[in-house]
Structure formats: structure tokens, C-alpha cells
């Protein structure tokens, strides 16, 4: 497993202090740098050095991304659909009905429990660092960082335009505009529990959408998030009068005969890889229960 990031100091960078180089040139967070320095995981030309070391031409900086760490989550054997994996990240296709991370109500059976078992079986010293999350009943692609460096890099790059999260949803009714952008602020009203509302007090929330296929009083819609608020797609579509099939929180309660969860699937991820900055594009097919729903509404 390649655990080291290697940098060679250029002539224009001579005279910089190591800490400054890692912040400005490598774009590392202060927390990542400080922790690695304390643990002796930064070397120059093979020697452990302090952050105030002054760089010389062609110095070789080695940054070890792996550190000893543990997580208070019980590993559990389960089937995990791995779509992509390397030394830095793992992307999985989450099935509907699975909670991503343990909570008071869900101590076991979560994706994190399964991933810790998966890492242990492979002999990898990784904890589960979630880069993206999905609601329990939303299926699809989730990125998990396998070390602190990749988590820092992905969190930093999430605001970039080439970091894309796209979904398929099946909604009630036919949308008036077949393509558009929903720019409406989402607010959490303490009295409404977990439910979010459209309110001027809320955070700026932007969703781009396009109708892929229309049925009798239903649409298959492709959506791309520009912001990532909790329940964003569900709130936006419901506000437009087109709640997602099976969404009992923001929609109709009479959909059990069609599908037993909200018909929302995170089908595509595009992101700059933390180590190479090359754009990684991953896609997954619509799950079976949503295909069955399309068959039912097509009749």
C-alpha cells in the first residue's frame, strides 16, 4: 500500500519553511500538518524534520498519510457493493434502508459497521471517514476517505464546480418546465423536528434538474446538487408540488403500493482525486425497486 506522498522542492520554492510549503503549495490543512509533524510522519531526504525547516533546491519531502487510529464502532460482516477503491478512497453503492453511520437508534447494521469489517478483513488500518452522506432510504454512491489526507482534500475540493453529485428521482405529476434550476433557501424549524422548509431565514440551496422521461402524471428527473443541504432535493421538489414517490416526510402517504421508500438514487459522482487531482467519474444503475416503480406508473 502506497502510504507516502512525495514532493520535490522547486527552485522557486527554495527558502520557504516546510510548514508554509505544506499549507500553500500542497494545500494541506493546519490540523493535518500539525498532527503529522507531532507523530514524526514528515521527512525530508529521509530525515524527520521540524516545520520550521528551510527548504533547499531539490529537497524531497515525504508525507506519510497513515496513522494509528481506531473507531468506537463494532465491525460487522455484510455485503457491500464496492464501485471503486484505491489507497485513498472507497466508493460504495448503498442499498436503500441502510443507515450510513451508527446513531442512538441504529447501533448496528450501518454502512460504517460493514466498512470497518471490510477494512479489517483486508488488513487495512482505516477508520470510516464519510465524505458524503445519504438518508437511510436514499440509495446510491457514497465516498469514504481511507485516511486523514484524502478526507481533508475531498472536503476542501467539495466546493469546486467539477465536484458533482447527481441523482435520479421519480416524482408525482409532470413538471411544467422540463429543465431548470431551483434556488430556494432551506431552513430547519426547531418545531418541525427533522423536517426542513423553504424559508428566507434558511441557507442558500441550489438544485439543477432535467426531466429524463415523462409518464402519465409522473416524471423521472435527473438532479445535480450545487449545494448539499439536508433533504435538499426532497424539500425542493415537494415545494414545487412534485414530491418524490414514497417520500412520507415531504410527500404523500399513499405510495406503499408503489414503493416502500423515497424513489431517490444517487447515481453519479464526479470529483478530483485527492492524490492526483484527476477527475474521477463513477456511475451506477437505477436500483430494482425504482425500476419496478417505473413499470407500475408506465402501465
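-> sequence recovered:
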Amino acid at each position: 500500500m502506497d502510504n507516502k506522498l512525495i514532493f520535490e522542492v522547486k527552485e522557486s520554492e527554495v527558502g520557504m519553511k516546510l510548514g508554509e510549503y505544506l499549507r500553500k503549495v500542497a494545500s494541506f490543512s493546519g490540523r493535518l500538518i500539525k498532527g503529522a509533524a507531532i507523530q514524526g510522519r514528515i521527512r525530508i531526504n529521509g530525515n524527520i524534520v521540524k516545520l520550521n525547516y528551510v527548504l533547499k533546491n531539490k529537497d524531497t519531502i515525504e508525507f506519510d498519510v497513515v496513522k494509528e487510529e481506531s473507531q468506537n464502532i463494532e465491525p460487522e460482516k455484510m455485503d457491500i457493493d464496492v464501485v471503486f477503491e484505491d489507497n485513498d478512497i472507497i466508493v460504495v453503492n448503498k442499498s436503500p434502508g441502510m443507515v450510513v453511520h451508527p446513531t442512538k437508534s441504529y447501533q448496528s447494521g450501518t454502512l460504517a459497521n460493514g466498512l470497518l469489517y471490510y477494512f479489517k478483513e483486508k488488513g487495512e488500518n482505516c477508520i470510516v471517514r464519510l465524505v458524503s452522506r445519504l438518508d437511510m432510504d436514499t440509495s446510491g454512491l457514497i465516498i469514504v476517505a481511507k485516511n486523514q489526507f484524502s478526507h481533508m482534500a475531498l472536503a476542501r475540493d467539495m466546493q469546486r464546480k467539477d465536484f458533482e453529485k447527481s441523482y435520479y428521482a421519480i416524482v408525482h405529476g409532470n413538471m411544467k418546465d422540463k429543465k431548470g434550476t431551483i434556488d430556494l433557501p432551506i431552513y430547519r424549524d426547531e418545531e418541525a423536528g427533522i423536517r426542513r422548509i423553504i424559508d428566507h431565514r434558511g441557507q442558500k440551496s441550489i438544485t439543477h434538474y432535467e426531466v429524463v422521461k415523462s409518464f402519465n402524471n409522473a416524471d423521472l428527473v435527473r438532479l445535480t446538487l450545487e449545494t448539499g443541504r439536508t433533504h435538499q432535493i426532497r424539500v425542493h421538489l415537494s415545494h414545487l408540488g412534485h414530491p418524490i414517490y414514497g417520500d412520507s416526510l415531504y410527500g404523500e402517504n399513499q405510495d406503499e403500493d408503489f414503493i416502500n421508500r423515497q424513489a431517490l438514487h444517487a447515481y453519479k459522482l464526479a470529483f478530483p482525486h485527492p492524490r492526483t487531482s484527476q477527475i474521477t467519474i463513477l456511475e451506477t444503475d437505477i436500483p430494482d425497486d425504482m425500476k419496478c416503480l417505473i413499470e407500475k406508473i408506465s402501465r
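The CA atoms of residues 179 and 210 lie 4 Å apart.
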